[in-house]
Design brief:
Blueprint lengths: L1 H11 L1 H12 L3 H14 L9 H13 L4 H32 L8 H14 L3 H4 L6 H11 L4 H26 L3 H5 L1 H26 L1
């Protein structure tokens, strides 16, 4: 519970925490951001890490001059793309054994089922759409690997999805994060981004339930 409370507090005050990290670690904060995005997309056991909100706040700090957007964008695109591909190969090489062994206690099967249902509806485009859906974006490449999706096709969708996701939220923060109304209510904006991120997944879940 303490870990969950600490995570919630970190996410809700991303602006303060990320700014403090920037002041404390300087250029090394780029490595911290890279690691968070890589793990959120590349490790099937880490869907709880912040994604959309982190990108928005990082973009806002770049708009303030605390980070360099020219370095931030390509670095985080590389993190998302690398994470996607790592997750794909984890699923392809050892996914079945993970689901049957000790990893089954760490990987929630309802998340897998939700992702599989999303694949059934959208096919290969799920790799792109999933980028904008918390939890689903962590499981989509893993499921693609288990399902032996053609790797060249996966690479194309993964590259497009990585560029679209990072630029949308990071540049959104860069251009709009320092507008006084947004800046003064950044915590509410973060909560709003998190809530809106879950709306498409909830809509697909309800549609799937009605269909069933």
């Amino acid at each position: 519970m303490e870990l969950l409370a600490a995570l919630v507090e970190f996410v809700l005050h991303l602006d303060a925490h990320l700014l403090a990290l920037t002041h404390q670690y300087g250029v090394w904060v780029y490595g911290i951001l890279f690691l968070i995005i890589f793990c959120e997309t590349g490790l099937v056991v880490a869907p709880f890490l912040p994604g959309d909100s982190l990108l928005f706040v990082a973009g806002a700090l770049a708009g303030m001059g605390s980070l360099q957007v020219q370095l931030l964008l390509p670095l985080l695109i590389l993190a998302a793309f690398s994470g996607d591909n790592t997750n794909y190969w984890i699923g392809r090489l050892i996914g079945g054994r993970l689901l049957k062994g000790a990893g089954s206690r760490l990987i929630k099967h309802e998340h897998l089922e939700k992702t599989q249902a999303f694949y059934a509806m959208h096919g290969g485009k799920t790799i792109i759409f999933a980028r904008f859906l918390p939890i689903v974006r962590t499981f989509a490449p893993f499921v693609a690997g288990i399902g032996m999706m053609h790797y060249r096709l996966f690479l194309v969708f993964s590259a497009l999805g990585s560029v679209a996701w990072i630029t949308f939220f990071a540049l959104g923060g860069y251009f709009f994060g320092n507008i006084p109304l947004v800046k003064d209510n950044l915590t509410l904006m973060i909560v709003g981004i998190i809530v809106l991120s879950f709306v498409p997944a909830l809509r697909e879940y309800l549609r799937h339930r009605r269909g069933a």
